[in-house]
Amino acid sequence: MSDLPLSPAQKPAGARSWIETLGLAHILLGLFLLIYPAMASDFFLTQIGGYSLVLGMISLSLMLLAGYGGMVSLAQITVAGAAGYVVAIFGVNNSGVHGFGWPWWVFVPLAIAIASLVSALIGWIAVRTEGIYTIMITLAVATACFYFTQQNYALFNGFPGYNGLRAPEVFGVYWRDPVPFYYLCLAMATLAYAAVLYGARSTFGLTLQAIRDNPRRMRAIGFNVTAHKVFAWWLAGLIAGAAGVLLVWFNGRISPGTIAVGPAINILVIAIIGGLRHPIGPFLGAVVVTLMQTFAIDIIGAERFNTLIGLVFLLIVFISPDGILGLWERFRPQAGREDWRTFRTATKQVGNKGRKT
Amino acid sequence: MADASRSTPKPLSQGQGMTRRQGVGLGLLVLAAIFVWMVFAQWPDWLNAILISKKAFLSAILNGLTLAGLYFLVASGFTLVFGLMRNVNLAHGSLYLLGAYIGYEFAEWTGYWLLGVAAGFLILAVVGLVMQVLVFRRLEGDDLRQTLVTIGISVVAADLMLAYWGGTTYQILTPEWLSGAVQLPIVTAVRSNGTEVLLVYPFYRIVVLVSAIVIGVGLWALVNRTRIGAMIRAGVDDRDMLAASGVNVHVVFAVVFALGAGLAGLAGVVGGSALSVAPGEDVRYLLASLVVVIVGGMGSIVGAAIGALIIGLAEQIGLVYFPTYGVVLTFVIMVVTLAIRPQGIMGGTR
Question: Which residues are listed as membrane-spanning (chain A) (predicted)?
Fold first, then answer.
C-alpha cells in the first residue's frame, strides 16, 4: 500500500535493513522457536515440536503444489514414505531384511533424491489431467502404493515393514535425543520454509503461479506448462523426502501404515486447516492437528480422534476456505497489517523485476 | 516427456476413422475367437504349463468377471454423479461400506436377504439425498471444496462406523436358494479314465454378475431412453443451458445423487455377501471406483462397464499369476490409459 512510509516498495532494495528483509513476525517466531527447548519438556519438544515440524514440512510440499501450482496432491506422504523406505533399506534396521548399513551421508541424500524422483514421476502422471482430477489420480497412486508395499515382501518387507531405524550419531550427538532432534527438524523446516518463500518470488515461482491461473495462456505465450509443473513436483519431492527421513527417525520404523490413506488424508487436512495461501499455513495446521491429536483424549477419548479432526476439517472447509490463515486475515488486529502488506508488496516488486529481466 | 504429453490429445483424422475402426474390430474378433477356443477346447500341455491349468485360468476369468460386476455397481454411481455435477465424491467408498453394514443389520433382523439388499439401496439413497441437499448444494460450483468436504465426510464416516460396528469382519449370509455351486458346461480336464471334469462355480457369484449386467443395462436405458435420462445427459453437457430451458436442475441432481449413493449401498450388500464386510473395505472400493472411472472415462456408464471389466479381470488374473504384483498391474493399466488417452477410454473431450 502506498500510504506505508517504510514499505520496501519505495526504497531501493539494497537499503533495506535485515529486519525489514526478514519481517518482524518472522524474527519473533524464529526467536521463540530457538528458545522453545528451554521452556518445554522432552515430550513437548519431540512429540509436539519435532513432530509438528516434520508433518508441517510434508504439508508444506503439498502447499507448494496446491498453493502455487493449483495441484492438490494426496500422494505427499507416499513421497515421504519413499524416502523412509530408502533409509530403511540402505541404512540399518532390526528387521533382518536388507539394511545395507551404508553411512548416513550416503543414504540420506540418496533417500531425498529418490523421493524427489518418485514425486516427479507421480507429478508427471498427474499433470496429464487438470484440476480436480489431480486429487483422484494422486489418491489412486497413494492407495496403490500402500497396497503394493503391504503385499511386497521382497523389497518393502510387507505388512510389518522395517523396525529399529536409528538416527545417526554425528559429532558425538545422537540426533534422536529430544533437543538435537528438535533443532534438526527446526533447521530443515526453516530451510524448506525459506526455500519455498524464496522460490515463490523467483521467476520459476511466478511462472508456476501464472500457469495455475491460466495454463492455456501460458502455453500460448510459449511456456512449457508440463515441464514447469513436473519441476514443481520435483521440488516438492525434495521437501517431502527430507521430511520423510526425519519422520522415520522420529518413529524409528516405517511400515505400509505410515503411507496408508489415513495419513495421506491427514497431510491434506493439515494443509487445509492451516491454509494454502502462505507457507506458514502448513506449520500452523501441523501444530493444531498435533495438539489435537495429543489432547483429544481429554475431549472425546483417544478412539474417536478421527471424528474430531474430520469435523474440524469440515468446519474449516465450510467457514474459511483459506484455513486458519484465512481466519487470521479476517479477524486480525489492525496493527498487524503492515507485515503482511509489506510481504505482499515485496512479492509484487520482486516479481515484476523478475519478469522484466 | 513434456512434449509427449502435449501431443497426445491429437484428434483422429477423419479419413482414417473407418479403416482404423475396422482394424480394431478385426483384432477384437481374433481375440474373441482365441478366447472362445481357450474356454471350450481341451488345452494342450504347453498351454497348461504356461497358465498353470485351465481350471485356474477359467476361475480367474470368472472371478474377474464377478469382481468387475461389483466394481461396475460401485463405479457407475460414482461416474454418474461426477459426470453430472463435476463432484468427485471421495466418500463413495464410505457409502459402499455403510450400505454393507446396513444390509447386514437388516438381513439379520428380518431374516430376509433381499430385504437387506433393498434396505441397503433405499437407506443409502436417502443418505445421498441428504448429502446433496445439505452439503453439496451449498458449495455448488466449487469443485475443490466439494471434494474436500467429501474427504472430511469419509474420515468421519469411517471413524463412526468403526465405533459402532467395531473392527470385526462380518459376513452377510446369502439365502439357501442363492448358495451352493453349479456345474458349468465347460470341461476343464479329462481324467485318465475318460470322465470329464466340469468347472464348478459358486452360484451366488453368477447371480452377482448377472444382476450387475441387468442393472447396467437398466442404467444405460434410463440414461439413454427416458426423459430424466435426457435431462441427465443434457446436464452433463451443459448444466446452465438445462436450467435455462426450464428444468429444475436441483431435482435432477438430487435424483442422480440418490441413485448413485443407492447403487453404492446396493453394491455394498451384494459385495458384502460375496466377500466380507470390514473396516478398510471403503478405501478398497474407493480405489476401485477411482481407477475404473479414470480408465473408463468420467461420466460414462459404458466407460464404467469397460473400466470395471478391465480392472476386475486384471486384478484377478494378477492375483493368480503374479500375486504380489497384482496392484502394480492395475496401476500400470491406469498409467498407460492416462498416457494414451488422458480422458479415459469412453471419456468425451472437455
Answer: 21-38, 44-65, 72-92, 104-125, 132-149, 181-200, 221-250, 256-276, 283-302, 308-328
C-beta separation of A85 from A149 below 8 A: yes
- Give A-chain residues touching B281 at CB under 8 angstroms: none
Give the C-alpha distances (Å, rounded to integers) separating A59 from A63, A75, A77, A286. 6, 11, 9, 8
Q: Cα distance from A307 to chain B (closest Cα, Å)?
A: 5
Could you say which DSSP state residue B44 is in? P
Would you list the domain boundaries of chain A?
Answer: 19-356
CATH topology of domain A19-356: ABC transporter involved in vitamin B12 uptake, BtuC (1.10.3470)
The 10s digit of each residue's pLDDT in B300-347 is 788 888 889 998 888 888 888 877 777 778 888 888 888 788 777 877
Residues in Cβ contact with B144 at an 8 Å cutoff, skipping those fewer than 6 apart = A72, A131, A132
Contact flag A227-B147 (C-beta cutoff 8 Å): no
ipTM above 0.90, yes or no: no
CA torsion angle B32 B37 B40 B41 (round to 10): -170
Q: Where are the domains of chain B?
A: 69-278
Instruction: Determine the residue among B79, B287, B322 to mutate to test chain A binding: the one whose Cβ has the most chain A Cβ atoms within 10 Å.
Output: B287
Side-chain half-sphere CA neighbours of A59 within 13 A: 33
For A156-214, what is each residue's pLDDT tens digit?
877 787 877 777 777 777 777 777 888 888 888 889 988 888 888 888 888 888 888 88
